[in-house]
TrEMBL record:
<keyword id="KW-0274">FAD</keyword>
<feature type="domain" description="FAD-binding PCMH-type">
    <location>
        <begin position="111"/>
        <end position="290"/>
    </location>
</feature>
<dbReference type="InterPro" id="IPR016166">
    <property type="entry name" value="FAD-bd_PCMH"/>
</dbReference>
<dbReference type="InterPro" id="IPR036318">
    <property type="entry name" value="FAD-bd_PCMH-like_sf"/>
</dbReference>
<keyword id="KW-0479">Metal-binding</keyword>
<comment type="function">
    <text>Catalyzes the oxidation of D-2-hydroxyglutarate (D-2-HG) to alpha-ketoglutarate. Also catalyzes the oxidation of other D-2-hydroxyacids, such as D-malate (D-MAL) and D-lactate (D-LAC). Exhibits high activities towards D-2-HG and D-MAL but a very weak activity towards D-LAC.</text>
</comment>
<dbReference type="GO" id="GO:0046872">
    <property type="term" value="F:metal ion binding"/>
</dbReference>
<dbReference type="InterPro" id="IPR016164">
    <property type="entry name" value="FAD-linked_Oxase-like_C"/>
</dbReference>
<dbReference type="Pfam" id="PF02913">
    <property type="entry name" value="FAD-oxidase_C"/>
</dbReference>
<dbReference type="GO" id="GO:0006108">
    <property type="term" value="P:malate metabolic process"/>
</dbReference>
<dbReference type="InterPro" id="IPR016167">
    <property type="entry name" value="FAD-bd_PCMH_sub1"/>
</dbReference>
<keyword id="KW-0496">Mitochondrion</keyword>
<keyword id="KW-0862">Zinc</keyword>
<comment type="similarity">
    <text>Belongs to the FAD-binding oxidoreductase/transferase type 4 family.</text>
</comment>
<dbReference type="InterPro" id="IPR004113">
    <property type="entry name" value="FAD-bd_oxidored_4_C"/>
</dbReference>
<dbReference type="InterPro" id="IPR006094">
    <property type="entry name" value="Oxid_FAD_bind_N"/>
</dbReference>
<dbReference type="InterPro" id="IPR051264">
    <property type="entry name" value="FAD-oxidored/transferase_4"/>
</dbReference>
Length: 537
């Protein structure tokens, strides 16, 4: 390491703060932490036409996506209903408006319901009794986990009964040989992580919202997060689910097997269904071993093209130890500085990258990282950087990426877009949006999961601004569809994005989703106004 450090000093693009000690010191205690052929938004080069060849699934024939849905004809809660809930959930049927307030509003404070009843079951049997009753009485239900969702899926729209999983927070079993954990849906992600770390394992997912989000909510929204590049999506790591159906039947698919090809994989229907098909009450999940060696580097790149080349290089040179490749742009950095007083750990650059390696041999991992950084520096892909060698610094570097969402909330009203694109296109959308909006927006920022081709495009304004929204949408969705992208990579559709589903799914697929919904929840009581578009209702 001394060699690379001295050589780096001779380079104009020297990486600062590389450990001058032996590669062994790199081992850190770890952060246990279609377009017809006219695409008006893209420069008309021939390869872009090739990428923009899919037909848009949307058009003037669709309902206005922005229109608020009317309240559907569900029953209203009566005194008899309240008496029933108080009987089956003594002290856990909450009607106090002060206590209900926070459950009626989403984390972004952008959607507010007017529910008058919050139910806090502790067991699957209680959830079953609640849903059986609500189904018979035609009462709408809003299942709620940690209420950290970003698309208005986790709060009522009108007076739906809120069914919280907060008290269903028991770990059921953990098999230390297979690494399979089973737990109730209301376990907070961070608590599960801490439990597993004591046993030399980790959760296969990690999110900025880990301190509040529930595993049931994570599964119901198929949350992605920071480790997806390494451990894949919940569709692969969730082995089994217990789900209560709309009529109260309990579907026990809580298997703890790696392999099970007996018929249709029903759990997949509930993963990412946002509580519209059933209420997830327990989860079994395959957990990876805790890596013995974790390194985090924070790098600066002059252009997005160089950032992409750095990504390619990291895949080739870090191989199996690469566990995260995340980015933020200089506008994100400005918001982190201004609103959260977080200091840029390196010199100012247009783009920043957080790379994490996780492995089992610190010497081996340190050498690989050393060679990668040397190559990235000498080929001028990165202009500055720092390496974390201790836990507190690793956390500090990660917070530069994890806290962008929080910084945005202090910048004004935020319009959020969670887009999947071919990775080489992701930043072009930010550039085009900036140009398109001009000075109508306060800030237009881009950050996200480069490794997953997932861009978080956020636009802020001093206050809610319908004219600005009309300039952003449907521009952003048409742009995305023109590149065969997805309008929701990992946040789901919830209330806010449901009517844009046709930009990413053909009408046949949406109609089939409607059939599945009608079969599992014929009265439509589960999380109404969410996920599926208005024209299916
Ligand atoms: O706030 C957002 O737009 C993204 C939130 C989250 O998915 C992240 O990756 O930080
Ligand atoms: Zn994300």
């Amino acid at each position: 390491m001394a060699g690379i450090f001295q050589r780096s000093l001779r380079l104009r693009t020297a990486l600062r703060h590389l450990s001058p000690q032996s590669p062994l010191s790199w081992a850190v205690t770890g952060r246990h932490t279609p377009l017809d052929l006219h695409c008006p938004f893209l420069p008309s080069t021939s390869w872009q036409f090739a990428a923009c060849s899919r037909k848009l699934h949307t058009g003037a024939d669709r309902p206005s996506p922005a229109a608020a849905p009317d309240r559907l004809p569900f029953s209203r809660i009566t005194q008899e209903d309240l008496a029933f809930f108080r009987k089956i959930l003594p002290g856990r049927a909450v009607t106090d408006p002060d206590l209900l307030e926070s459950s009626n509003v989403d984390w972004l404070k952008s959607v507010k319901g007017s529910s008058e009843l919050l139910l806090r079951p502790e067991t699957t049997e209680e959830v079953s009794q609640i849903l059986k009753y609500c189904n018979s009485r035609n009462l709408a239900v809003n299942p709620q986990g940690g209420n950290t969702g970003l698309v208005g899926g986790s709060v009522p729209v009108y007076d739906e009964i809120i069914l919280s999983t907060a008290l269903m927070n028991n770990i059921l079993t953990f098999d230390s040989i297979s690494g399979i954990l089973t737990c109730q849906a209301g376990c907070v992600l961070e608590n599960l992580s801490l439990y597993l770390e004591d046993r030399d394992y980790i959760m296969p997912l990690d999110l900025g919202a880990k301190g509040s989000c529930h595993i049931g909510g994570n599964v119901a929204t198929n949350a992605g997060g920071l480790r997806l590049l390494r451990y894949g999506s919940l569709r692969g790591t969730v082995l089994g689910l217990e789900v209560v159906l709309a009529d109260g039947r309990v579907l026990d698919c809580l298997v703890t097997l790696r392999k099970d090809n007996t018929g249709y994989d029903l759990k997949q229907l509930f993963i990412g269904s946002e509580g519209t098909l059933g209420v997830i009450t327990s989860v079994s999940i395959l957990c990876p071993r805790k890596p013995k060696s974790v390194n985090v580097v924070f790098l600066g790149c002059e252009t997005f093209e160089q950032l992409l080349k750095t990504f390619q290089l990291s895949r080739g040179m870090l191989g199996e130890i690469l566990s995260a490749f995340e980015f933020l742009d200089s506008e994100c950095m400005r918001l982190l500085n201004t609103h959260l007083k977080l200091r840029n750990p390196i010199s100012d650059c247009p783009f920043y990258v957080v790379i994490e390696t996780s492995g089992s041999d610190s010497t081996h991992d340190g050498e690989k990282l050393h060679h990668f950084l040397e190559e990235a520096m000498t080929s001028s892909l990165v202009t500055d950087g720092t390496v974390a060698t201790e836990d507190s610094k690793i956390k500090a570097l990660w917070s530069m990426r994890e806290r962008v969402t929080e910084a945005l909330t202090h910048d004004g009203f935020t319009y959020k877009y969670d887009i999947s694109l071919p990775v080489e296109r992701i930043y072009q959308l930010v550039t085009d949006m900036r140009e398109h909006l001009g000075d109508r927006a306060k800030s237009v920022v881009g950050y996200g999961h480069v490794g997953d081709g997932n861009l978080h495009l956020n636009v802020t304004s001093p206050a809610k601004d319908p004219a600005l929204l009309a300039a952003i949408e449907p521009f952003v969705y048409e742009w995305t569809a023109s590149c065969n992208g997805s309008i929701s990579a990992e946040h789901g559709l919830g209330l806010k994005k449901r009517n844009y589903i046709y930009y990413s799914k053909p009408s046949q697929a949406v109609a089939l989703m409607g059939n599945i919904k009608a079969m599992l929840d014929p009265k439509g009581i589960l999380n109404p106004y969410k996920t599926l578009p208005d024209d299916l209702k």
